[in-house]
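FAQ

Q: What does a record look like?
A: Structure on top, sequence underneath. For example:
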């Protein structure tokens, strides 16, 4: 393999730069080569529209993949939850490192917990998935909240709380952990309350399918349990024909007996944005030992959810 620096394509946001920097350090260790970050602006970074309006699917990814395909970068790092479920020809997910905390969190005024927010509390989120589940929980527990659509980076979103425009915002625990701001979290949302986005908390390291040496080197960063879990989650999303901005939550848990991993439990949820209707199901089986088995687990749960009316809760299904 060449001794030239490897070029890592990354979005320009503070979070993307932080997580790409962490991957760069790990790749340097396994390859013995320096890694330089190549900043790439994506459509999702420049558009001011809400993600639900611009489709969500691929808006943070396409420019990075184009740079990879043109040979302008050697590999790219994505937040896995941003990746469309279809893998483009000529590119491969060489590694999915061990997952960070997949949960959603609240950053609220006065250090409040979600259930302690005042009646009529305004909660900001750009995610139909989060809005659907928060509203469903509120309906079921006698809470009075209003979910408000927002865009922007972490600073912008938390700023809405600091300046009093919102009572709270919902963010991903993984993102705040990666940029060293977990001390601003006022409440962790249990996955029993809000299921995360498929792949949330995981990173995807992508490179050209023909670069066997680089694929082998990056593969040393792969975590097989994380890969099996997110493959099942993304299979569910794909089988629902839903894009990554759809109101779909999914999480695959590894169940153990205190010592060894025994089974995988996959949970999925779809809901209307106002939380008035939801379909939430789970299935448990052996930990998938192959890609095909992980895919099958997701498809089977999606079929059960569709049989219970999930398609009608997602609005226009992504094609």
């Amino acid at each position: 393999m060449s001794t030239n620096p490897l070029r890592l394509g990354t979005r320009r946001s503070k979070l993307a730069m932080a997580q790409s920097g962490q991957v760069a350090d790990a790749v340097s260790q396994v390859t013995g080569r320096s890694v330089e970050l190549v900043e790439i602006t994506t459509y999702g970074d420049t558009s001011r529209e809400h993600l639900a309006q611009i489709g969500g699917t691929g808006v943070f990814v396409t420019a990075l993949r184009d740079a990879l395909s043109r040979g302008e970068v050697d590999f790219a790092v994505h937040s896995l939850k941003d990746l469309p479920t279809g893998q483009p020809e000529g590119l491969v997910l060489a590694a999915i490192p061990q997952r960070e905390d997949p949960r959603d969190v609240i950053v609220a005024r006065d250090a409040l917990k979600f259930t302690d927010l005042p009646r009529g509390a305004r909660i900001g989120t750009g995610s139909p998935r989060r809005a659907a589940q928060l509203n469903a929980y509120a309906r079921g527990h006698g809470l009075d909240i209003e979910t408000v659509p927002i865009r922007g980076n972490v600073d912008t979103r938390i700023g809405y709380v600091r300046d009093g425009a919102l009572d709270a915002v919902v963010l991903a625990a993984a993102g705040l952990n990666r940029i060293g701001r977990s001390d601003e979290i006022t409440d962790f949302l249990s996955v029993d309350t809000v299921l995360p986005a498929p792949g949330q908390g995981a990173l995807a390291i992508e490179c050209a399918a023909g670069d066997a040496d680089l694929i082998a080197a990056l593969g040393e960063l792969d975590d097989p349990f994380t890969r099996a879990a997110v493959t099942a989650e993304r299979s569910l999303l794909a089988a629902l024909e839903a894009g990554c901005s759809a109101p779909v939550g999914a999480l695959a848990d590894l169940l153990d007996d205190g010592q060894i991993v025994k089974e995988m439990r996959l949970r999925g949820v779809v809901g209307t944005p106002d939380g008035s209707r939801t379909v939430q199901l789970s299935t448990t089986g052996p930990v998938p030992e192959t890609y095909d088995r992980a895919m099958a687990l997701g498809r089977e749960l999606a079929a059960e959810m569709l049989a219970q009316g999930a398609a009608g809760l997602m609005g226009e299904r992504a094609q």
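Q: Is there anything notable about this one?
A: The radius of gyration is 19 Å.
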